[in-house]
TrEMBL record, chain A:
Protein's UniProt keywords contain Plastid: no
Domain of life: Bacteria
Subcellular location: Cell inner membrane; Cell membrane
Source species of the chain: Bradyrhizobium uaiense
GO biological process, one term: transmembrane transport
Entry annotated with the keyword Heme: no
Database matches in InterPro entries: MetI-like, MetI-like_sf, UgpAE/MalFG_permease
Any single Pfam family the record assigns to this protein: BPD_transp_1
PROSITE patterns (alphabetical): ABC_TM1 (PS50928)
Designated name of the protein: sn-glycerol-3-phosphate transport system permease protein UgpA
Name of encoding gene: ugpA
UniProtKB/TrEMBL annotation, chain B:
One cellular component term from this protein's GO annotations in UniProt: plasma membrane
Main location: membrane
Subcellular location: Cell inner membrane; Cell membrane
ABC transmembrane type-1 domain location: 78-269
Encoding gene, per UniProt annotation: ugpE
SUPFAM superfamilies: MetI-like (SSF161098)
Subunit (UniProt): The complex is composed of two ATP-binding proteins (UgpC), two transmembrane proteins (UgpA and UgpE) and a solute-binding protein (UgpB).
Chain's role: Part of the ABC transporter complex UgpBAEC involved in sn-glycerol-3-phosphate (G3P) import. Probably responsible for the translocation of the substrate across the membrane.
One BP annotation, GO: transmembrane transport
Name the UniProt record assigns to this protein: sn-glycerol-3-phosphate transport system permease protein UgpE
InterPro entries in alphabetical order: MetI-like (IPR000515), MetI-like_sf (IPR035906)
Length: 293, 282
């Protein structure tokens, strides 16, 4: 795609792209290159000499059971967050898609959590489910649940997943609603004339037609769970108890803070870059197939 | 028309209200907690109805801060967040629109190479380049500054892409017409292209403002001085102290103040917000 009508100038276009290019090179490419180079180097204990060690830092990481556990945990979190948030949002979107009185009000009342920052989400949920003073914890204990996410790793993980899924409902709802509204009414009417009941219409007609949206949202939600949950984890559990809620991004952050092995920390960053590249690749390939909102 | 029996419709209303209640409950709880006495909350005896400490809590939160370790008024944190969010949103739009203009309306060597260089940054979110970027910002002496908070986040592949796509749809006749009127590249940009891009810019601004206001990891790393804290970082520090000392009403009031500007933007500019969201994710 190219414009036919253009301006002639030798220097002006460079001046126009210069600000963005400068920022991109200084704050994006330079640090990324640093990370890649650093990931092939090994520093001795005193930081006096560094040597080139090829993929040793990576091999060490993959041999490390703690790192492997963090990978598994991150993927488990991602799928749990994506699936719980997507299914709840889909239910709400299907309901809001019906010709109801007050449907714009419903939409407004459901989309605002998008704007709540992850650390704030963390604070809200920590307060609600705090073991000693949380309002909901009272009921949990009354039901006989020994609720203490500060000590119990599984409960802490559940808390993170719930809070992260809560925040993402609004986003998923919005895209599901748009997807549902783009399904031609005539298709649904045809199914109704053939005698399909609402449940059957949903599973055999609407759900398949919605599958592009579902797939798109699945990718977006996984990216979200990988990166944007940092703020939620940091305010709720700080990766604990133990390492029960430490995701890959959180691990890069804490390992870096401890300031230990530079090479290993860089290798972790590079692995994250590869994951982003793969996820973005999937997303783009899919968007090529054209979804209409 | 597909028939919708009364019962089905009734059920839809009920499910939607349950959904709204679930979504709103944590925030309702925060509102209630911010108006109650801390001692009562710490006992686990919090009532589910608002208490009488509203003015007191919000006055303390905005102008004094917590009485514990970080005694920083939240109003100041909000100001920092506002400056950062505006710098990020305006900066991203400004540098993206001029890059897109160069890429679409000029032919020059390395044009596509530059476009791809910008585009690939999509795959380098701040989370994957945390510490090397931190080091550069430290070397440039930008720690604890508004420039340090915003500059490393200001490049935008999505905004550049969006403006490029939009410019491609602008008919060539407009450029030819303004050229006949004697307009150069600056005049055409300012008088023709910019007014046409207004809706796109507004939609983008809404999304980018929310994104900027909600930044967390980056400000957490590069601000050390209390008076440079953004509200998202400040709220985390409030609950760092041992549980017994956390001033929950102040924390909850801060949480509500932290979500107020972006939620306001979403609700009031809903049309622009939805448009921006759908466009930036494509």
């Amino acid at each position: 795609m190219q414009k036919q009508a253009i301006f002639q100038s030798k220097l002006l276009p460079y001046a126009l792209v210069a600000p963005q290019l400068a920022i991109v090179l200084i704050f994006f490419y330079w640090p990324a290159a640093q990370a890649v180079i650093q990931s092939f180097l090994l520093q001795d204990a005193f930081g006096l000499s560094t040597s080139f060690v090829w993929f040793e830092n990576y091999l060490e990481l993959f041999k490390d059971p703690a790192y492997f556990a963090a990978i598994v945990r991150t993927f488990a979190f991602s799928f749990a967050i994506a699936i719980s948030s997507l299914s709840f949002a889909l239910l709400l979107a299907v309901m809001a898609d019906k010709p109801l009185r007050g449907s714009t009000l419903y939409r407004t009342l459901l989309i605002w959590p998008y704007a709540v920052a992850p650390p704030v989400v963390g604070v809200l949920w920590v307060f609600m489910l705090h073991p000693s003073l949380g309002v909901l914890s009272r009921y949990l204990r009354a039901m006989g649940v020994d609720w203490n996410p500060l000590l119990n790793g599984d409960q802490a993980a559940a808390l993170i997943i719930l809070a992260a899924a809560w925040k993402q409902i609004s986003y998923n709802f919005l895209f599901f609603l748009a997807g549902l509204q783009s399904i031609p009414k005539s298709v649904i009417e045809a199914a109704a004339i053939d005698g399909a009941r609402p449940m059957r219409r949903f599973w055999t007609v609407i759900f398949p037609l919605l599958s592009p949206t579902i797939f798109f949202l699945l990718v977006i939600n996984i990216v979200y769970a990988f990166f944007d949950t940092f703020g939620i984890i940091d305010t709720m559990t700080r990766g604990g108890p133990g390492k029960a809620t430490e995701t890959l991004v959180y691990k890069v952050y804490t390992d870096g803070l401890l300031g230990g092995n530079l090479g290993s920390s860089a290798a972790q960053s590079v692995i994250l870059m590869v994951i982003v590249v793969v996820l973005t690749g999937i997303q783009f390939r899919f968007v090529e197939r054209k979804v209409t909102y | 028309m597909v028939e919708e029996e009364g019962f089905q419709r009734y059920l839809a209303h009920v499910i939607l209200w349950i959904g709204i209640a679930i979504v709103a409950f944590p925030v309702y709880l925060a509102i209630v907690a911010s108006t109650q006495d801390n001692a009562v909350i710490a006992n686990g005896q919090m009532s589910l109805l608002p208490g009488g400490h509203f003015l007191e809590t919000y006055y303390q939160t905005l102008f004094v801060g917590t009485s514990g370790s970080t005694r920083e008024p939240v109003l100041n944190m909000m100001l920092n967040s506002l400056i950062m969010a505006l710098l990020i949103a305006v900066g991203k739009i400004a540098i993206s629109i001029i890059s897109a203009y160069a890429i679409v309306y000029f032919r020059f060597p390395f044009r596509m190479a530059i476009f791809w260089t910008i585009f690939i940054t999509l795959m380098l979110p701040v989370e994957v380049r945390i510490y090397p970027t931190y080091k550069i910002v430290a070397d440039l002496h930008l720690l604890d500054s508004y420039a340090g908070l915003s500059l490393p986040l200001i490049a935008s592949a999505t905004a550049t892409l969006l403006f490029r796509q939009f410019f491609m749809t602008v008919p060539d006749e407009l450029l030819e017409a303004s050229r006949i009127d004697g307009a150069g590249p600056f005049r055409f940009f300012w008088d023709t292209l910019l007014p046409l891009s207004r809706t796109n810019m507004a939609a983008l601004f809404v999304i980018l403002f929310i994104l900027g206001w909600n930044q967390y990891l980056w400000p957490l790393l590069i601000t050390t001085r209390d008076d440079m804290q953004t509200i998202q970082v400040g709220i985390r520090k409030m609950i760092t102290t041992t549980d017994a000392l956390t001033e929950w009403p102040v924390v909850m009031a801060t949480a509500l103040l932290a979500m107020l500007p972006p939620v306001f933007v979403v609700v009031v500019m809903q049309k622009l917000f939805v448009r921006g969201l759908v466009e930036t994710e494509k």
